[in-house]
Write the structure tokens for this entry.
Amino acid sequence: MKLQLEKIELKEIELPLKYPFETSFGRTTGRRILIVKVFDKNGASGYGECVAMENPFYNHETIDTAWLMMTKYIAPLLSAARIERAAQVDETLAPIRDNRMAKAGVEAAVWDLEAKLLQKPLWKHIGGTREKIACGVSIGLQETTDALLEKVAREVESGYQRIKLKIKPCKDVQLVKAVRQKFPSITLSVDANSAYHYETDAPLFKQLDEYDLLMIEQPLAPGDLVDHAKLQREIKTPICLDESIVSLTNARHAQELGACRIINIKLGRVGGFSESRAIQLFAQAHDIPVWCGGMLEAGIGRAHNIALSTLSGFTLPGDVSASARYWEEDIIEPPVVVSPEGTIRAPVNPGIGYEVKENLIEKLAVKRESISLT
């Protein structure tokens, strides 16, 4: 079976969050989401979701830059290459520097398409081995400590196997202390989204060593592997890198420097399934646990994250949580649900394994474009 790509269809939808989500770099109340649909001459189609944010605060990409990259550069490269397999997308798009979220949105759609043509679940097609994945949850900054404790209590009761707290300067140690005192036995981690500096904040992270954390995620600037390595040598708690790891090369450098002991792999951040699998294999060979992080995805992106999380190296609970935590109505059916034991079962249907609500996407669409690949 060879792919015969015919066209790419882009739609931007606006989806309000059920509750605001706040991190060290801002507060989100709704998502502009770029949906990618790739068509094959055989009549099949595949879906991807670009996870670029509205503003360039997580990284340099935005939904608007991603749209431009897809229409002006990604589509022409795919058209000229006449690729026959999904695994060729990554190499075909390699001439484009960075812009990994734009690439990943298209690459994921092609992988979904190919899995459907093969009549295989996507997670099996990419080499996944787990029939169910362990789920954690990420909790944004709350107005008060009491509100945070209530939120944690609800998520623990829902069965999530790991609780992650967003932190930022002046909202860190005291929050962790309060949560740990009330929930002494839960698996707990924190995520700083690059909000701190080694020179001034190293003592703070030494304080966090007291609270038996699974990890401290991305405490320092994304490009600063050297200072992360210094900090890791000074604290007992494992550092997990997120924004710092956008490629296999970054993962190799982090390992050589001792900059982290855990890696968060996000499909969009690293450019798609091919690079994600390469990072996972490297990490596995060097006994570095990995897990799948989230970017406030709607259902299509969430389904791709489930597939990614079934790979053998993903040994820690990820941020792949239930649709109902974020959306009144998701764009797939059935919605993603988490069992009382804190797991999600990998779907059995071909491709991403969920039915995309095309009518809902069309209703929510505020922008559309179709690009021929023939």
